[in-house]
User: Fold Amidinotransferase from Flavobacterium potami.
Amino acid sequence: MKQTTNAIVMIRPVAFRMNEQTAVNNYYQKVLDGLLPSTVNAKAQQEFDAFVEKLRGVGVDVTVVDDNLETDTPDSIFPNNWVSFHENGDVALYPMFAENRRQERREDILDTLEEKGFEIANIMDYTSAEEDGIFLEGTGSLLLDRANGKAYCALSPRADEELFIEFCEDFDYAPVIFEAFQTVDGERKLIYHTNVMMCLGETFAVICADSIDDKKERKMVLDNLKEDKKEIILITEDQVNNFAGNMLEVRGANDKRYIVMSASAHQSLTPKQIAQLENHAEILSSSLDTIEACGGGSARCMMAEVFLPRS
Assistant:
């Protein structure tokens, strides 16, 4: 199984704004005072277009789909939370915490991929769990080490343990389960998505180990990464707040590997961390300030990786 892919899906926003329904447990979201919604969306579109251009510029195969105005989906720019695509042709659809995010799941996006020659064999649909108030938000909640058959999950209101284990059984992953915290107004609160504090590359892992308060759990997670011979690059909670955990390794032209992140994530890294990362792949960063502030997500959340077979 490959850990990285050359193909990704991205959703261009049409009505991007801070989503009041996700702000209840995504403590990274901010209100941008004094900006009209249309201005926020226009800025987000500019950041999105520049980001896509950079990815395509190095040979990443980006499928861009426009969001539509009929649905009120302010977070549609983060498709990795509702869908994941797998090498055996499986597509997984996930239950979402915020009601207005559930409309992001669109069959026509799957049709678009099939038109491009990707083969979808089977759809694993976990969305009925929403009726029971149970959520698992795609590769935001679960980090897949596809090559080593492990899935990492920081439990939260958006990542249910039982459903995560069910996913692991269905897709044949060994579950690595823990809790990760951030300090909010002096209190330790659960981090809403695993991919905010951790990134898995082919040969490296970026992780804020300090966010795993339980020492045994922290050791267990780090031992799993070491076992798979990944170089561990530690980041701080302050760097997590700058989205340094929200990176993704992708492949460009000639299978060259890139570590994709936002400009704020890149700027928060130390020269030593940058050197460690550059031992593995070239860094590609793009300014996503508006998207990060209003959406509380960053570069990794914007890219749904496509591992489907091609005809």
In short: The longest helix spans residues 37-57. The chain has a mean pLDDT of 92. The CA atoms of residues 119 and 309 lie 6 Å apart.
